[in-house]
Amino acid sequence: MSHKRVAILLSGGGSNMVALADSMTGDHPARPCLVMSNDPHAGGLTKAANMGLATAAVDHRPFKGDRAAFEVELMKPLLDAQPDIVCLAGFMRVLTAGFVTHWAGRMLNIHPSLLPKYRGLHTHARALEAGDTEHGCTVHEVTAELDDGPILGQARVPINAGDTPETLAARVLVQEHILYPAVLRRYASGDRTPVLLS
Ligand code: GRF
């Protein structure tokens, strides 16, 4: 059985990357082929290397905001790895429409809110400020519009009295580590039916 090849892009600690990579074993239809970051010192790269995964880094800083030039370099190790699916897992660079179009229909992202609510940053603080009673995370296909593509999965958590952005983020992150692997397993087998966890 030939497995689907999955590249994972991250910017930070990589806990979602670990959950995804750990899930791709046994009868899972996919296997990780590359873990890449825009930060050569990202904790997630070290974790990936310790897991024996191929890694690469393209530092975005020398490009001084020139996204297109940064993406030309980002594309090189990615094309070399020949992924069937690209998972954005805490990758914090906004990608251009050109890059997204190249990977259209095979690039996923996890976002820490119940989209379409709270696109962008600081999602936990915004949900608390709004007085919401529930919050969560979403896995979606990536389109040129930020945090906007077709939803492939959502997990809901309650917001409790006394919650802070930190306590809420921690509760959501636990669900992220369940939701993203569940969506990837289904997506890699060609099934786009949303995974709904509550
Ligand atoms: C996660 O909360 C993810 O939803 C958001 O960035 C965070 C990354 O965490 N986009 P990690 O690097 O996977 O631990």
Describe this structure in words.
With 198 residues, the chain is of the alpha/beta class. It is 35% helix and 23% strand. It has a single domain (4-193), classed as 3-Layer(aba) Sandwich (Rossmann fold). It is built from six helices and eight strands. Helix 1 packs parallel to helix 6 (165-188) and helix 5 crosses helix 6.
Short characterization:
The chain has helices spanning 15-23, 43-50, 67-81, 97-102, 123-129, 165-188, and strands spanning 4-10, 30-37, 55-57, 85-88, 107-111, 134-141, 151-158, 195-197. It has a single domain, classed as 3-Layer(aba) Sandwich (Rossmann fold), CATH 3.40.50.170. Helices cover 35% and strands 23% of the residues.
What secondary-structure arrangement, pairings included, does this model have?
Elements: E1 4-10, H1 15-23, E2 30-37, H2 43-50, E3 55-57, H3 67-81, E4 85-88, H4 97-102, E5 107-111, H5 123-129, E6 134-141, E7 151-158, H6 165-188, E8 195-197
Parallel strand pairs: 1-2, 1-4, 2-3, 4-5, 7-8
Antiparallel strand pairs: 5-6, 6-7
Helix pairs in contact: 1-6, 5-6
This protein binds 5-O-phosphono-beta-D-ribofuranosylamine.
> Strand fraction band?
15-25%
Oligomer: single chain
Helix-strand sequence:
EHEHEHEHEHEEHE
- Helix-strand makeup class: alpha/beta
Query: How many strand units?
Result: 8
Cofactors, ions and other ligands in the entry: 5-O-phosphono-beta-D-ribofuranosylamine
Large-scale geometry: globular
Low-confidence segments, given as residue ranges, are: none
- CATH homolog superfamily: Formyl transferase, N-terminal domain
Number of structural units classed as domains: 1
Helix content: 25-40%
Distance from N terminus to C terminus (CA atoms, Å) equals 33 Å
Kindly report the spatial arrangement of strands forming the biggest sheet. 3-2-1-4-5-6-7-8
Largest sheet: 8 strands, mixed
Which CATH architecture would you pick? 3-Layer(aba) Sandwich
